């Protein structure tokens, strides 16, 4: 060790900086501050002191620093470098101690992570020393409220958002609520405003909430990123057509499908006539034709003359009603010939069984984390940003298709497959267990695999070790019966290796778990299915209105008790499978406590509710006791 230290001391500053930059700033300061004159001078530099992340992160959760490290920073290190600190990333349990252990004269930015909802409201409303910091210093703020605290009773997310903008009077940059469920919803026009805010990233529930943000209350806003749960005609009419001249960048992402592109989205974009950058990620219904380059040119680009960068990822769907002409992928590509500065990829598919067509267009390189509904017409490329992939087609996926998928998405973590068609090429293989002529596919980062709605051939595709190598243990959504068939009643050696990688496996309650099954899944948790519901899922009325001529989206809410896995609930699984077939249906999950609270606060948000008898009784009691006479659902409530 002593020899290593001598060599380290002998290195020039340039080499030492290269080494130290590869370490975390907290590690550098904790290990080398005060060590010797040379290192002390280096680690006091702005590279290591301007921005400090005083948290540990694991599995997307934030934790405090270890006790000795935290204590030394508060008592020694932070007081020494306090005048150099400009940004602090903190978590809730140690935030107050770190902010108050010394004075930070140049602090302007905070990242607050894992902040409980009630604690977040308290620190921005109570008269504490923290309020002075927020008011007088902070011009950039990131607030991350964990999903688990969103459903708690008490102050709403919108209350916290309002409190922050009221207190932080110097705020210029604001990113609020990365959790997908951390959505703003304004019951009435909000009372907040800011003449300093330049950039904001938020999630809102519906389109009217976005309109409130752009009604002039943030008149200096230059960059706005909005993720919207749904875009539908607002119940409240907002006749605001005021121009938005200061906005230079606008990002709009919608979680669910909309048929209000022409009615709502286009007029809003026309108000932003000085836009330089635009990012659209939408899923839309078309009445007669797909959304293509002609729409982009005539409805958007020709109205935004200063537009320099246009990133888009747009899927459009239409019903097949004996149209005389159906556009091809070549037609779609031709529509982009006049659009400059963009490489555009398109993929057009028609599904005769579903009587639907889909067209996916996006600017390349692809920037999203999800890529959905990939078919055999997929244009291959390299998609390093994508973590979640879903595959759907009415034609079979062959082995070569999965080879290309694995190469195109090297960092894929979640894969969902929907395909009921048997593979064709496997019929020409000499033996199901002898596939040595095939390349073995590897998925090095895959942690979740959903095979709930597939032909047995795709179960075999992933379990057969001559086709696929599962390099890590993973969650696999799969029914008992296809696994039993593919593994030859849990005796097939060629599927044994990959089956051992399953984290859990669900067995019907009428099946006895024998030692043979345990031996076949040596590292797998084997569970009994709690419920076997004799339901013909296709007859459930949640999809009854989907096939008619009316174009609308239906909410389907599955209600569960916290901690109970939905995999064992055959009724809910059946509804989820149906919902996956219809883009019109939004399927979501809510725990019973939050369901009851939402029924009281906003009952009309529920169209279809899927639950068991016990929770159905709870819901009925809530409706009878608190919202008597109101329609808590627009159409159905389905109970097992």
UniProtKB/TrEMBL annotation:
Record-level GO BP terms: isocitrate metabolic process; tricarboxylic acid cycle
Keywords annotated in UniProt: Oxidoreductase, Tricarboxylic acid cycle
GO cellular component, one term: mitochondrion
Keyword Oxidoreductase in record: yes
Enzyme nomenclature, EC number: 1.1.1.41
Database matches in PROSITE patterns: FBOX
Membership in a protein family: Belongs to the isocitrate and isopropylmalate dehydrogenases family.
UniProt-recorded name of the protein: isocitrate dehydrogenase (NAD(+))
